[in-house]
Design brief:
With about 350 residues, the protein is α+β, with helices and mostly antiparallel strands. The chain has two domains: about 5-135, no CATH class; about 230-350, Sporulation related repeat (Alpha-Beta Plaits). It contains nine helices and 15 strands. It has helices at about 5-15, 60-70, 75-95, 145-150, 160-190, 195-200, 230-240, 295-305, 330-340; strands at about 15-20, 25-30, 35, 40, 45-50, 95-100, 105, 115, 135, 245-250, 255-260, 285-290, 310-315, 320-325, 345-350. The strands form five sheets. It has a four-stranded antiparallel beta sheet. It starts with a helix and ends with a strand.
Amino acid sequence: MNIEKNISELLFEHDCVIIPDFGGFVCNYSSARVQRQKHQFYPPYKRISFNRNLKNNDGLLANQVAQVQGISYADSNRIISEYVSNLKKDLNSNKRFVFNNIGTIYLGEESNLLFEQDEKVNYLPESFGLSVFNSPAIKSEPIERKIEKQFKDKTTIPSREKKEVVLSGRKTSRYFVASAAVLLVAFFIWIPFQPDFIKSIDYSSLNPFAAKEQPLYQPSESDQPDPDTDKENVGRLLAAANDTTRYLNIVIDGRFPIVVRLKEDATAVVKTKKKDTHTKYRFHIVGGAFVISENAEKFYTKLIKDGHQASIIDKNNLRFVSYGGFSTKEEAIQALDKIRAVQGDAWLMIN
């Protein structure tokens, strides 16, 4: 009894054919495709897969066998049962079973059933008469090759206008280079006759590797005094100053020291010949600058009483009273930080 032929006939009309106690063949539509490696074209077809969980008898295969063989439905189920029993024995012994014109079932690892469809038969009725055909690859030349062939035997003759444009462009560039050269030569000839211009050049700034001396103090925006500072407070400080004071140190908000020069007194006071005990030092921490010698002497005496090695330095018609002199800048800066804790407007002078 050829059960496989009955299954094949049912696959043309149905999308699922179950073999009782074994499994079912399930069909799905698959569109036309092209295999580019072999240049083959395939029409639409039914893709067949196998599902071993479809084991319940739906009567479709048994009814088909009964009608084709002219037997009863019970006899048809008996014949199918014997066919399934022989199919399982053959599969266990050979590890594979071939369904003619349908496909091959393999016994894989862990007793898994694998199915491979036989693509020689197309079970899609709409694709009847359509078969697989080959189409050789079409060789087409690239567009660059076609253009090259068209202009291969042709010679390009530049137009007269193009020649004139090229020549005029070359002449213009030559004139420009010549003019720049003349201006450069004239500049170098003019420089020796301008000594003031040469002296005004700062050659040290032309050296990119020269270290630039940084100022001891650079005021920032936060160090600038508030323009809305109360003017009455400054007026009180000026009124409280002695008549002999010529320079007044005003500290605003405890942060901004301002030195104010008062109106000079007509009475001149002879400066005392105080020896500059620290003139040998280059760096001095100055606490005040005075025009009146008497004021300088008073401030000097006060510093001596406080334990400082004070000195008076006469320079630029002023008497600078120093807390002390230092040989190196580092020592002076360290001492300046301590002195500013007492007098915030003290500053460093390089003699």
